[in-house]
Specification:
With about 260 residues, the protein is mostly helical. Helix content is about 70%, strand content about 5%. It is built from 13 helices and 3 strands. It has helices at about 5-15, 20-25, 45-60, 65-70, 80-110, 120-130, 130-140, 145-150, 155-175, 185-200, 205-210, 215-225, 235-250; strands spanning about 5, 35, 40-45. It has a 3-stranded antiparallel β-sheet.
């Protein structure tokens, strides 16, 4: 006759809480072998084996709902099931790695300052979080080889560029209201240009390409407002745009109307 265990003994023997065993019973995942006349649950070695299967499948990342289907299947395609589960785990791993990467960028951005303007922070973190979506967006505008050159930079360099950008955007917000053509404002725009060149050395050609597709770019940005959240409010955006226009004219990217 198979050994019989009350729920307390079974709990200790399998290192499973009584509460968990009650829950498994309620959802039909692991029923006791029988109930006494007084309603007490009793388990046998067969339930130990079944519980071991449940624990193993949980370890492999299966949900209780999935486990319930698997352990009640007469014929279980083990290889197909595990291959699928492995694929799901790889996706989760990639998501976790991306989250850790984003947190590393966040820590670098606030390294020197405990506080930062929320819109700046969200804008920069979005650029990390939505990197794949940004790549797809840019494919409609510039060659893929250029996109790869922009994004395939060392991680430490990327973090430092994010930090420099955060500091620059903070300084631009503080300078808001000054004459866009002033030396101090144009110096800040020049810092932005240097950051862009550190990210992609041929920034001038890239800007020229994007300016040729201005209408297409504007339409796509209007259609995807969540994809590129701005670090500036409407007034600041207009002011930065004016300062950029002045800078671009000096660079020869925009011809003066008198030329």
């Amino acid at each position: 006759m198979s050994a019989q265990y009350g729920i307390g003994d079974f709990s200790k023997k399998t290192n499973t809480t009584v509460r968990t065993l009650h829950y498994y019973d309620e959802i039909g995942l692991l029923k006791p072998a029988f109930l006494s006349d007084g309603g007490r649950r009793y388990y046998t070695d067969a339930e130990i084996v079944k519980l071991q299967k449940i624990v193993t499948l949980k370890y492999l990342g299966y949900s209780l709902e999935e486990i319930q289907k698997i352990i009640h299947e007469k014929d279980w395609n083990l290889k197909q099931s595990i291959q699928f589960q492995r694929g799901e785990m790889i996706k989760k791993k990639q998501q976790i790695e991306q989250m850790i990467r984003t947190l590393d960028h966040a820590l670098t951005i606030i390294e020197d300052n405990q506080t930062i303007d929320a819109t700046i922070f969200i804008s920069l973190i979005n650029s990390i979080q939505m990197e794949n979506e940004h790549r797809e967006f840019l494919k409609e505008l510039i060659p893929e080889i250029t996109i790869n050159e922009i994004y395939n930079i060392p991680e430490e360099k990327h973090k430092q560029l994010s930090k420099r950008t955060a500091n620059l955007f903070t300084n631009l917000k503080e300078a808001y209201g000054q004459e866009p053509s002033s030396t101090s404002v144009q110096h800040l725009i020049d810092e932005l240009w240097q950051i862009l060149n550190d990210l992609y050395p041929d920034t001038k050609s890239l800007i020229e390409t994007l300016m040729e597709k201005d209408e297409e770019l504007t339409q796509q940005l209007d259609d995807s407002p969540v994809l590129f959240p701005s670090a500036f409010n409407a007034g600041e955006e207009k002011w930065v745009g004016q300062a950029l226009e002045i800078y671009f004219k000096k660079m020869g990217l925009i011809l003066d109307e008198n030329d």
